[in-house]
């Protein structure tokens, strides 16, 4: 009974965190859907400058196109699932690994739903670098990178010392920023798309981590390892 109450409190904290942290994302999504003049103009100017910069540098364009494919959700999520499998089989973090994998794929599905809900068109630019299908807000690449970065950082935290934890967290941030830059420089996303994606991915993974932390702390000894966040 006590464990049930503790688990409910943990889920409540996760929900509260998710709602509070989602406010900036929801506000940005509303501005995008309402075609706010300030956001739309900033997006237009930035994407135009970014695509001109890329179009003038063929080597950068080729690198960005390679990055677009390498950083696609299908490959990043499969790699993340491989890390989860390693943590389960080699390090005995079965429940923690299942949580991380579930969060990664759940965030991916939520991102697809958010795209359909907002229904924003891709940028229209003069210096076309490449084109991709689908809608634009939030950026699936950026959201996925943020969710994977948070999930794997939390997953491997107990296995690392302080410097190792800092290195993994730094790598996660760099991955997210590189992914976001790739999308804007290729002209397939507005800056607000990638900002929204990064925020939403972080919110989803963060709320999931808060909920799992409370659940694991409430679980009977031996049924689930505690999660440190």
TrEMBL record:
Its main location: membrane. Pfam families: PAP2 (PF01569). It is found in: Cell membrane. Residues 100-209 form the Phosphatidic acid phosphatase type 2/haloperoxidase domain. It is a multi-pass membrane protein. Keywords: Cell membrane, Hydrolase, Membrane, Transmembrane, Transmembrane helix. The chain crosses the membrane at residues 97-118, 167-188, 194-216. This is Phosphatase PAP2 family protein.
């Amino acid at each position: 009974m006590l464990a049930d109450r503790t688990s409910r409190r943990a889920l409540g904290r996760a929900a509260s965190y998710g709602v509070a942290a989602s406010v900036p994302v929801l506000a940005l999504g509303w501005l995008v859907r309402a075609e706010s003049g300030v956001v739309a103009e900033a997006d237009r100017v930035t994407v135009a400058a970014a695509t001109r910069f890329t179009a003038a540098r063929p080597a950068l364009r080729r690198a960005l196109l390679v990055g677009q494919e390498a950083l696609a959700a299908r490959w990043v999520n499969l790699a993340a699932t491989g890390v989860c499998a390693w943590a389960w089989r080699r390090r005995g973090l079965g429940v923690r690994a299942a949580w991380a994998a579930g969060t990664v794929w759940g965030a991916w599905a939520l991102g697809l739903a958010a795209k359909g809900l907002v229904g924003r068109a891709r940028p229209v630019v003069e210096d076309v670098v490449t084109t991709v299908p689908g809608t634009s807000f939030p950026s699936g690449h950026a959201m996925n990178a943020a969710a994977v970065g948070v999930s794997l950082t939390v997953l491997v935290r107990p296995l690392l010392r302080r410097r190792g934890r800092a290195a993994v967290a730094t790598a996660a941030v760099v991955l997210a920023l590189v992914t976001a830059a790739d999308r804007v420089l290729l002209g397939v996303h507005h800056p607000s798309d990638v900002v929204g994606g990064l925020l939403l991915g972080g919110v989803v993974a963060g709320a999931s981590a808060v909920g799992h932390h409370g659940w694991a702390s409430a679980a009977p000894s031996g049924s689930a390892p505690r999660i440190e966040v």
